Amino acid sequence: MKNLLLSLAVGLPLAFSAAVASAAEPALPHFDKAHTAIVITDPQNDFLAENGKLYGLLADNLKELGTIKNIETLMATAKSSGVALAVDPLVYNALDVDWSRAGALQRQLLDMKALQRVSLNDPEGFEGSGADFYEPYKTYIYDGKTIVVAPHKMYGPESNDLIYQLRARDIDTVILGGMVANLCVDSHMRALMENGFKVYVVKDAVAAPGADAYNAALVNYGMIANGVLTTKDAVDALRR
Questions:
Q1: Largest CA distance in the chain
Q2: Pick from 204, 179, 152, 188: which is nearest to 44 by CA?
Q3: 117 found inside a domain
Q4: What is the pLDDT of residue 2?
Q5: How far is residue 218's CA from residue 229's CA, in Å, rounded to a whole number?
Q6: Alpha-carbon gap, residue 56 to 58, rounded angstroms
Q7: Are 36 and 84 contacting, i.e. CB atoms less than 8 angstroms apart?
Q8: What does the angle CA 37 – CA 65 – CA 141 come to, to the nearest 5 degrees?
Q9: CA–CA dist 133, 118 (Å, integer)
Q10: Strand 116-117 and strand 147-148: pairing?
Q11: Which domain CATH number covers 177?
């Protein structure tokens, strides 16, 4: 951090500053498994299935990083290592379209009916829809042990029960991945940090709409989170 601040002070490019800050790879963190959760944001069809409404925006980054497989690896590791797994979906329903204060991107999602179901208590049309969970992940999500929190409506968990669910289980450390790197993942990282959790973001278990958005997210992760890991790092740390 000292090198990063010094570089910024003398006007060196931020990319160079980040490289200086990460030149020495830190040791893997020690996770107290009883107080650690893997949290995955938005593991849903519209982001991850090839016919999803938002898949095309993320496809290149998903393939480059191996994101879909890496998220599954994190889920499987949660089950095999005994740490909690929580999923935090983004879901709109038919009544949400009339919002008068939706932001620019949120308005686009509402207008294109992405991540939408009729209502949270109506199963009609939900199975296999864009709002539904990505099919290969359901074996982990529907095992009766995964924490499936109420959907968030913006980007962070302020409008749902994620933080309460984690605190109620004495979780103080989060290993974070999911969709989308510079939006919901970034917002969850910030909210969790503000609420006193340790947060480690898994940089190849996310994806963004293009390299610029992904790199912007990486800069924020490196400056805000307690650590930035690869999927291999996270798995190795949890298997120790």
A1: 59
A2: 179
A3: no
A4: 47
A5: 11
A6: 5
A7: yes
A8: 35
A9: 16
A10: unpaired
A11: 3.40.50.850
* Rounded Cα distance, 205 and 68, in Å: 7
Domain count, the chain: 1
In a domain, 209, yes or no: yes
Q: What is the DSSP string of 42-101?
A: --BHHHHSTTSTTHHHHHHHHHHHTHHHHHHHHHHHHHHHT-EEEEE-B-EEGGGGG-SS
Output 106 or 61, whichever has higher pLDDT: 61
pLDDT above 60 (res 114): no
pLDDT at 102 over 60: no
Domain range spanning residue 143?
Answer: 36-92+132-239
In angstroms, rounded to a whole number, what is the distance separating the alpha carbons of residues 129 and 23? 43
Closest CA to 133 of 68, 58, 45, 196: 45
- Does residue 118 sit within a domain? no
Coil/strand/helix, residue 228 = strand
Rounded to two decimals, what is the model's pTM?
Answer: 0.85
How far apart CA 95 and CA 118 sit, in angstroms, is 8
Q: What is the DSSP letter of 135?
A: G
Q: CA 184: distance to chain centroid?
A: 6
111 inside domain: no
The label of the residue with tokens 């980007």 reads 155
Which residues have C-beta within 8 Å of that of residue 24, sequence separation ≥ 6? none
Torsion angle (degrees, nearest 10) of CA 172, 177, 182, 188 = -30
**How many angstroms separate the CA atoms of 153 and 180, rounded?**
14
